[in-house]
């Protein structure tokens, strides 16, 4: 794999509100400015899922929380390999430029690398900790495949103000991240701006029923209305929003369920959520949520999953 600075086609052309603090290939990670100490307890923001400071410095300071949530899909029936399904739909040509906005710990980037993708790749994320995790995943993926020859850049950037020029990408991904942007329409506008006409924007979100049993159990344990734990932007919301920005939107739904024989992965999932650590007794909260989840005669806890991918196109 060739590594180096961001490919010219992707370089920023205008000053941006977002900082491009790190830009490198997976084997040439430039040290970012030292972050403020973040171990001091902070008050929980009113909407932690859309609070940039909380997301960068607590929830996604490392990929530990995201990894705990990703692990639970090992119990999915039928298994939905979401990065694989989405990249199959994206079908980038060999020389395309793919931008993954809110790339997180790099599951899509690593999958592209494992496929031997030869075009240019950009991963952008608000969190430096997630970019480090993405670099590590990319290093693992490319070490396993010496033939990988794509050029990869990782940058710290806000989806609502991307430091990229117009038409920079042929394929732009925004997977499970729109609900983190305070004004999702601003991100949609940026996703369209940085994608060339004739290219594709792929937006991945969850349906309203996704993890509904888990949300109901956690809400009951917290004494809250389950609606307070609903995602800020569901797949339906994303589809309506995408249709307001793009003339053509096609939707692909991937319904499935988790069948979990052991409470530990569910406990880890709940522990990764905002609010659990701040609870007076996190272990008691988790125990209460687990006991509110029905157990099947075969000893499983069954939880609905529903992710979907929107493909948005314009000329
Ligand atoms: C749930 S993770 C999804 C990661 C990855 N796209 C995936 O599907 O596996 C959400 C990611 O979006 C990032 N994020 C949140 N708000 C963002 C923003 N305004 N701009 C860019 N990235 C953002 C977070 O730091 C986190 O890495």
Automatic annotation (TrEMBL):
Source organism superkingdom: Bacteria
Keyword Oxidoreductase annotated: no
GO MF, one annotated term: S-adenosylmethionine-dependent methyltransferase activity
Classification via SUPFAM superfamilies: S-adenosyl-L-methionine-dependent methyltransferases
Keyword terms: Methyltransferase, S-adenosyl-L-methionine, Transferase
Gene3D superfamilies for this protein: Vaccinia Virus protein VP39
Plastid is among the record's keywords: no
GO BP term (any one): methylation
InterPro entries from the UniProt entry: Methyltransf_11, SAM-dependent_MTases_sf
CDD domains the UniProt entry points to: AdoMet_MTases
Methyltransferase type domain ranges (all copies): 100-203
Residue ranges, annotated region (Disordered): 1-48
Protein's name according to its UniProt entry: Class I SAM-dependent methyltransferase
The species this protein was found in: Trebonia kvetii
